[in-house]
Amino acid sequence: MTAAVAGFALFALLVTMAPGPDTLLVLRNCVRGGRRTGAATAVGAAVGSLAWAVAAAFGLAAALQRWDAAFTAVRLVGAAYLVVLGGQALWAHRRPAPAAASDRVAGADDTGHAAPVPEEGAGPLAPVRAFRQGLLSCLLNPKVGIFFVAVVPQFLPEGHSVLGATLLLGAVDALIAAGWLLLVVGCAGRVLRRLRQPRVQRNLERATGGVLIALGTVTAAETVSA
User: Fold this and answer.
1) 116 bridge partner residues
2) Among 52, 59, 76, 134, who pairs with 145 as Cys (CB 3.0-4.6 Å)?
């Protein structure tokens, strides 16, 4: 059992380290609200991964894999969610901030440095909302569920309950996802002061918004053409 868990943990770590929508959201929300907001996003994504593990354990993910209509619907909803997030980022930063805005300060952020006032229309991102974004980003990605269905059986030890072992491996994957994304938050925090400069933040938000829209569009196109 220990060898199976260790092997799965290594594989899950390699998969988690590949940049994806969750990492992108964590970085984006670090810029918008600081490390606390980024951490909330990371935890939300990890909880979403754990939810998919539970669903896989009880056969939901397997049902989605067999039922093309359900899989297509979830993929399209997930793609739409990415496009909405990207559109919100582009809309909130559609205009340059007034010159005076870069000189105003709204107290200190959680890095200990003074944080610029958010641009008009952008608004601060509360940790609860960031958690919800991370959670939905993962829940609306059926590939996470298919990952468990396709990969977990290869690591299930003989003589153990399939349900219990799947839940255990799902918990391991969620912990790895949370640990990696929190590490991303920690690294982002070191350069947060520079990233939160109005001009840098605006350009990063626009770039991130464009990437999110592109990801959602490609996902939708692949789903429709499949």
Assistant:
1) 105
2) 52
